[in-house]
Amino acid sequence: MVRDDRRLRPEILIVLGLSLGQSAVYSLVTIVARLTASQPLSQQTATLNPSQSVRPYLDLTYQLLGILFALVPVALALYLLRSPRSLLGLDVRRPWFDLGWGVALGAAIGLPGLGLVWAASALGINANLVPAALPPVWWAVPVLILSALQNAILEEIIVVGYLVTRLRELGWRLPWVIAASAVLRGSYHLYQGFGGFIGNAVMGVVFALFFIRTKRVLPLVVAHTLLDVVAFVGYALLPREWFSWL
């Protein structure tokens, strides 16, 4: 059903401006800064999950608050959708479907993704990625898992569930809906370099198509969580020399 764009267009801009649209703008500024720096992009570092304080429990507090408040735009989007469970497939009526497809999508995206990271690094179009830079404290792994879950919930509900639903209600054609979701996903990863943009845009196409076909966002949350847990926790726990090939 086509909805009144006088309300939906400002709503979309507000939701994105409070969340991943804002991240995309900052990411665009960051990549411009990287490209105009004296040091080549391939010699720069993009750090995910950095430490926030040298005082461990203050660091933990900042980490948990960051995770909590990053999910507020998700609550806003779900509130505005009014009936998110039926629209987005956030119910748990099909747990094995959600889990099975989540694992399958995670594997389908993750394995080629490693090759893309290597290729982007070899071509010099990506910064060096540090997926986790927390100190070796007892809470590091639980926080990294929570961070992975927060990323998955935020991105899949906002960029796929919410945005795809709203753009379709505005009467956009499916190719443009998919392109908008994919480009947005790629754009807020531009701080990593052009490899990050390309890889995440391709992931965005796959995830948008899956949601349009199944009307379920939970498998995407599962897949994204698995991808980030492997990247964050794996980097934090495995020996650094294992990553030298990247």
Summarize the structure.
This protein is mainly α.
Per-chain topology:
Elements: H1 5-17, H2 20-35, E1 45-47, H3 56-70, H4 72-81, H5 84-88, H6 95-123, E2 128-130, H7 140-169, H8 174-187, H9 194-214, H10 218-237
Parallel strand pairs: 1-2
Q: What features would you describe in this structure?
A:
It is a single chain. The longest helix is centred in the middle third of the chain and has 30 residues, at 140-169. This protein is an all-alpha fold. A two-stranded parallel sheet has the order 1-2. The relative contact order is 0.18. The N and C termini lie far apart (47 Å). The protein has helices at residues 5-17, 20-35, 56-70, 72-81, 84-88, 95-123, 140-169, 174-187, 194-214, 218-237, and strands at 45-47, 128-130. Helix 3 runs parallel beside helix 7, helix 6 (95-123) packs across helix 10 and helix 7 (140-169) packs across helix 9 (194-214). The model has no long low-confidence stretch (mean pLDDT 93). It has one domain. The protein is globular, with a radius of gyration of 18 Å. It is built from ten helices and two strands.
